[in-house]
């Protein structure tokens, strides 16, 4: 028996590969979308109620914090969508080799961040 084995894992020292990081972000973005769903549905209902509520909601969305929140939610949606497509392809036994998995996870990050930046600039 090896006496030099660690008795516990130091999770701060473990370096995650990019596919694992994409997987964790996929779960986190799904959770954020689920938790934000009541707020998003409330804003939709409030915007459709009357012209006065729509204008007050539009005024509220001019605040920089609300814009940042919606840009972040836009990124969460885009990342969750792109990673979900990646997982659908993996379920079809495509892109399961290590180099392909790393490349596809890199593309998920690039596409989701680029689209979020482009649409976020338009939203701002």
Quick structural overview:
The protein has 124 residues and is an all-alpha fold. 77% of the residues lie in helices and 0% in strands.
Features:
mainly alpha
Question: What's the structural blueprint in terms of helices and strands?
Answer:
Blueprint: H1 18-49, H2 51-60, H3 64-91, H4 98-123
Description:
With 124 residues, the chain is an all-alpha fold. It has one domain: Fumarate reductase/succinate dehydrogenase, transmembrane subunit (3 helical TM bundles of succinate and fumarate reductases, Up-down Bundle), CATH 1.20.1300. Helices cover 77% and strands 0% of the residues. The protein contains 4 helices and no strands. The protein has helices at 18-49, 51-60, 64-91, 98-123. The longest helix is centred in the first third of the chain and has 32 residues, at 18-49. It starts with 17 loop residues before the first helix and ends with a helix. The model has no long low-confidence stretch (mean pLDDT 91).
Report helical residue fraction. Answer: over 70%
Mean pLDDT figure: 91
The end-to-end distance, rounded to whole angstroms, is 61 Å
Strand content: under 5%
What spatial form do the alpha-carbon principal axes imply?
elongated
Supply the number of structural domains: 1
- Per CATH, the superfamily is Fumarate reductase/succinate dehydrogenase, transmembrane subunit
The CATH class label is Mainly Alpha
CATH fold node name: 3 helical TM bundles of succinate and fumarate reductases
List the quaternary state of the chains. Answer: single chain
Using only CA atoms, what is the Rg?
Answer: 20 Å
Contiguous helical run count: 4
Series of secondary-structure elements, N-terminal to C-terminal:
HHHH
The name of the CATH architecture is Up-down Bundle
Structural class: mainly alpha
- For the secondary structure, the number of strands is 0
Poorly predicted tracts of residues: none
Biggest pleated sheet: none
